[in-house]
Design brief:
Elements: H1 2-35, H2 51-75, H3 77-84
Helix pairs in contact: 1-2
Length: 95
Amino acid sequence: MTYVESILKVLLVGLALGAGLPAVFALGLVAYSRGTGDDGADGGAVVAPNAALKYLGVAAFVFVGWVIVTAVLWITRATIIHHTGIDLFPFLPRK
């Protein structure tokens, strides 16, 4: 059963990071665009800006950016430790 459990863990992480981050980015884009409001230039009704949706969209963008930067630093951590001596993840064991 350990092989099946390992495969399922990899599948879940792959789905979360592979499909989850673009989904969070898309939801942030929708929230931000709806939060800016509409000026009614096409003859439609004027929609007032919603600050909460704008902040939610920005928070989603910041989260996605944070995950990407953390992933790059995680991948390059051995090189960073080698060249600078700084361990960015001291709470995790080294290989």
